[in-house]
Amino acid sequence: MQVVIHISLKDGVLDPEGRAIGHSLASLGFDDANSVRVGKNITLDIDTDDASRAHQRAARMCEVLLANTVIEDYEIEVIEES
């Protein structure tokens, strides 16, 4: 089952990369882009047909390795094949 994990910095955590991108966008004339934040997406396949188990395994992976839960939040999207 395919799982997409969206990881982003928690509110209040400084995002220097997002800030740099925001400044660059403004200097290129895109001054309507505000509060730029940078995150990451991780896509993986988990060998199960149970969406609940896939979500649970992905959450465990985030807690152990994929996300720094002190400063990052994560959201898990399980994509069920039709």
Order of helices and strands: EHEHE
How many whole angstroms does the radius of gyration measure? 16 Å
Mean pLDDT level:
96
Shape: elongated
Low-confidence stretches: none
Instruction: Tell me the distance between the termini.
Output: 11 Å
Biggest sheet strand order reads: 2-1-3
CATH topology term: Mth169, Chain: A
CATH top-level class: Alpha Beta
Count of extended strands: 3
Specify the helix fraction band.
25-40%
- Looking at this structure, what is the CATH superfamily? Phosphoribosylformylglycinamidine synthase subunit PurS
Q: What is the structural class? A: alpha+beta
Count of alpha/pi helices: 2
> What's the CATH architecture?
2-Layer Sandwich
Give the biggest sheet: 3 strands, antiparallel
* Whole-number tally of structural domains: 1
Beta-strand content estimate: 25-35%
Structure overview:
This protein has 82 residues and is α+β, with helices and mostly antiparallel strands. The chain is 34% helix and 28% strand. A three-stranded antiparallel β-sheet has the order 2-1-3, covered by helices on one side. The relative contact order is 0.34.
